[in-house]
């Protein structure tokens, strides 16, 4: 059976088939999302709980422990990590990779409900959970700074204007705001004054809640009309709250300002953001699953002028972190590598075949196979990332092999005197099933990655399928387009003679064959020495394997560092701030650092802080991110009671958190 015969006999249909493969691939290429790594679903759930005023020890014993006991009964948990700080507890649950995240979320909620009676009665709300994906790192962080507005006002602008506008950008998922909280009125009661006037906490609470409420005011009517009475009696500022009447006694009026300090503040005063040397509110932008990072960031940047226009003139909106330049550069390097690989393959083919016509046939197999692979990648929901592009780079050498095998066999029959058409039928028939078995065995090797399970399968799934698809497409091309072109483009050398380049190519090939023959003869005469060389090579390789550093993924230089500052347990917010300032100023003074943004306190606790360090382009700083971290650690001053952890930011963060 000749698999190629129908395609050799129908050149127009064969060409149309190849063009259809190219067209589908070209259209799919424009639709593929761009990402640094494949989209992986890590089943990770974070449970958060808060208890106002509780120390880390109290949070660990009264909140974290009951929750851990209840959550520990859930099946499929791989690791469970808890972190308790002032007033907050955070429990990270990482499940097995084959665990359904939605089913796990339902069990987590059931476990939280089961622990309700074991938790302190003073908790204002039940613990909450959130599904997270460590592989979905933020794609951009924006900072809002102002020398005029308070941070509560900045937060209000961020939540009412910026967050809403950014969420409407195509590809944007969640927009988180940090570094402050919404404006609020803070009432600090003075115990001595309460005792002096004989007022209890309930008296003050009742007065505040009963006065600051929107109630219907009734209506006014006459014979023909009815008017609803409206009054704006909602209290919003400290000036409104201060004269609030607590009670009347002996004709005297006791007001809130007589027993308390009333001031305009924010809901959480133990939360402060910064950008370089300014206080700031940060907006952390996450993308939707499968969204194109580069396009999403480009759309956000296009929106920034309009967003700046609606903000007060005293507010500055800056980019504190942007992942797109590094992703662009990485993918550009991968694309250039792919292009260089294609060019080198074409040059080598031309060098050894010595004929432009003959070289063009396997050369056409490369773009048809690679571009056609994009259609299957889009069908499977894959993205253009480092691993899928690496698969295409490896496939470049593999896809041309099939075409060369067919070409060489057909050329041999033509040189032996057969007509090119008959040679195409005979040559393709002889190697058709050989190519089929060879490619099936290659696909079996790469597709076996899908059966490994765990993180390796999730990470290399796109790599395995992309490479296998490229091999299958190249097999189709080599059995259809290649023999058809051979039947019509190849001519006997006697028909047109040999040119100088072909004669030179044959001499080079003859010399290489002669050199191989001499080396093979020497090896056969020195068998013991050859076996000894093989043994030494194996031993050296084993020794090098032992000493070479090992890691699951190589260290990346994304142009950004992530910093985490932890103070001693029980450290207050006011004491933590100067420690953080010392670290911040030291980092900002480094010549490789472009900007530093972050926040202290918040949900992480008063003794914790987080930083995003943006480095200058590699052309300006000359050092890798890892070397910059080493220099920062070396020059970092000693801060009693505070520890700084710095590391280059990575596209894939394992372990459920930083």
TrEMBL record:
Alphabetical list of Gene3D superfamilies matching this protein: Multidrug efflux transporter AcrB pore domain, Multidrug efflux transporter AcrB pore domain like, Multidrug efflux transporter AcrB TolC docking domain, DN and DC subdomains, Multidrug efflux transporter AcrB transmembrane domain
Pfam families attached to this UniProt entry: ACR_tran (PF00873)
GO cellular component: plasma membrane
UniProt-recorded Gene Ontology molecular function terms: xenobiotic transmembrane transporter activity
Keywords linked to the UniProt accession: Cell inner membrane, Cell membrane, Membrane, Transmembrane, Transmembrane helix, Transport
InterPro entries noted in UniProt: AcrB_DN_DC_subdom, Acrflvin-R
Subcellular localization: Cell inner membrane
Record keyword Membrane present: yes
Keyword Chaperone appears in the UniProt entry: no
Primary site of residence: membrane
Membrane topology designation: Multi-pass membrane protein
Residue ranges crossing the lipid bilayer per the database entry: 336-353, 360-381, 387-410, 431-451, 463-486, 529-548
Name of the protein described by the UniProt record: Acriflavin resistance protein
